[in-house]
Design brief:
Elements (H helix, E strand, L loop, with lengths): L2 H5 L8 E5 L6 H18 L3 E4 L18 H15 L3 E4 L3 H7 L5 E4 L7 H9 L3 E5 L9 H9 L6 E5 L2 E2 L5 E2 L4 H6 L5 E4 L5 E2 L8 E2 L4 H11 L3 E7 L13 E2 L3 H19 L2
Parallel strand pairs: 1-2, 1-12, 2-3, 3-4, 4-5, 5-6, 6-9, 9-12, 12-13
Antiparallel strand pairs: 7-8, 10-11
Helix pairs in contact: 2-3, 2-9, 4-5, 5-6, 8-9
Amino acid sequence: MTTSDYLKSSPTSNFFLLAGPCVIENEEMALDIARTIAPVCAELGIPYVFKGSYRKANRSRADSFQGIGDMQALEILARVRDEIGVPVVTDIHSAAEAETAAPYVDILQIPAFLCRQTDLLEAAAATGRMVNIKKGQFLAPEAMHFAVDKVLRCGNPQVAVTERGTTFGYTDLVVDYRGIPVMKEIGVPVILDCTHSLQQPNQSSGVTGGRPQLIETIARCGIAAGVNGIFIETHPNPDAALSDGKNMLALELLPALLRRLTAIRQTINNISQE
């Protein structure tokens, strides 16, 4: 089964989930997060992908945490995949990173700021791994088909796009839910990033802010708008997270949220069948 097929494998036509910490901090935490989420997803019929960046290249400040070391973090991702039995996704930032990361993960994620980088998209496609392209904060939903085409032209049909908010002024983002059906017309899965969409970038401190109290609101609206998948960064203690703690969901809150979102999806599915 390909990763694309796995994401469509819910017996109840539920959404799929990409969830995990912003960045890999250590092996124990990564495994604990995956062990917490995986059984809840299995219960609810949610295909689950563990998310963790092995390195964070797009930091505002030079002294911001970037990672524990590339190979150490990639090996942790591979262990999550092998021990928990779920696919894993990580970000890449250059063409060279695509080849480095591909053996350890199932999905290569293209950061929003890099979604137009042709060499990066082509290198990711060439690995044969699924490619998840985050829509740039500056880009119209209609324009995402050009990014998708770059992957498809390389002979790789496994591609998804992710909405993660649009720049609103200098220090805020908004989600335009009209873009969900527009991007679905491209013919690939559409994911909603419920945590990065609530970032408050460009703060004077050099540390990105966020509004995590609205994560459920964003997610509910996304399910109602028909997204195929939900992306949520989560951490056992967001206040102590080494990256993006201001907009992550506390891990203890995630199971109940998934149950509520599943109920909404089931209602939407029932209405669609009437």
